């Protein structure tokens, strides 16, 4: 029960800051933005010379998406980007974090010839943003690998992918870098590796040889990220003056007891998530805890690799933070998948007395735990020598329910409370000395939520899929507008 008291203290402290969180609690240069990704919102999959991505195939494979949907049209951002950018401006956000669809730039991924129509589309997006005074934060890879790269060389399983990704990154810096000053390479390599090659819940949907492929795919993503960073630092940074980072995700792990083995389990859990990627990039190798459990399933970094990953380090850590778990040591966690099982960590969502760690949102994995945000931020700062951090995603979902009247759905009080709570914890982290520089909410719009299709709504803005994809700001969007106005006073 000792632990319980600690959390209650956190909650009390949290409650006392929540209600008053204001824009003025953040430094003036701290940037607030809103986030999306290409496959989830663009649609227009056969337009503008776009090639197919692994997600086109995956979403059209029976049984992969719960509602049998796909993102061929999604919210049609490809045609409505102007309207969407007006909306971002109207709400007062000063940053927009989106991703570039690789197969729009290089339809087969091989990088022989850029697709000018793809370049033109993103030029239009970028120029429209700048006209409205909104800073573009561009992610190069948010899961939509050109299909041909998967079919021909095995995608992330082949080391050659590093070169193809480097060519793609170089082309993006060359075409957009005069105006884009904030880059991230790969969004959530953990989810790509585990979803794509272990559980098979994400494209390309493999769980053929998870104990090997999961770690190999991740290894190549670390190298691909580093190759892109190195090109940016050596060839563009001086001229263009921007910055570049990686986007990792972390579910905070709170030990469920004071027992040393549970404390270690919690530490290990975080190392398996953040350390998998950040240890190599900051220290040159995977965490010991991972090596001990995975042995040579974790590939080695050659001397040449080490030079690449440690040379010209990234400028900031991008963080996606949604939820937290109570964890304890367990030889057999009963979890699904090689990655989860190998950690010897079991997870739970209830304290000993039955109280929940937080309310559940619509997605099964998403419990609302604002204080976990502050802890993840502090952990990154303490472990990796206080790097600049940009929160690239944070948000919650509601279940799609067509029987609830629109007015009721739009009044998303729970999401307002969610944002107040989490943003207050970000402000606390800054007071703790963590160098957090920006925050983006996930997501601007309801959109294609991967294997959940359109059954989950993460948007600040509601999209009416039955009536012409019209956009309707929810109360949370209006809350942001008021919150952000505060800064102009
Ligand atoms: C992120 N988890 O994925 C992605 O970057 C977004 O594209 C996605 O829409 C958003 O979060 C909401 O799901 C995550 O299980 C998926 O902890 C799952 C988890 C975290 C992030």
From TrEMBL:
GO terms for molecular function: beta-glucosidase activity. Substrate binds at residues 40, 142, 187, 322, 442, 449-450. It is an enzyme of class 3 (hydrolase). Keywords: Glycosidase, Hydrolase. Pfam families: Glyco_hydro_1 (PF00232). The active site is at residues 188, 393. Belongs to the glycosyl hydrolase 1 family. This is Beta-glucosidase. It comes from Hibiscus syriacus (Rose of Sharon).
